[in-house]
Amino acid sequence: MRGVAVYANGRLVSEPEFFGASDSSYAYAYLTGHIAVDGLDAIKPDVVATDRRAVNWEHADAARIRVLLKRMVEEIAQLRRQLRADKKKAQIKDETGVDSDEWVETVKGPEKEPLRDLISLIESEDTDMSDEDRGKAVRNLKDIAPPYADLVWRHLHTSIQAACESYFKAGDYYQALLEACKQYVADLRSAAQLPDGDEASLFGKALGDGSGRRLNFTLPFRVRSPSISDNSAKNLENGQRELARAIWSAFRNPLSHEPMETIKSLGVISHHDCLDALSLMSHLRRRLDSATLLP
Question: Does the residue 78 lie in any domain?
Answer without folding.
Answer: no
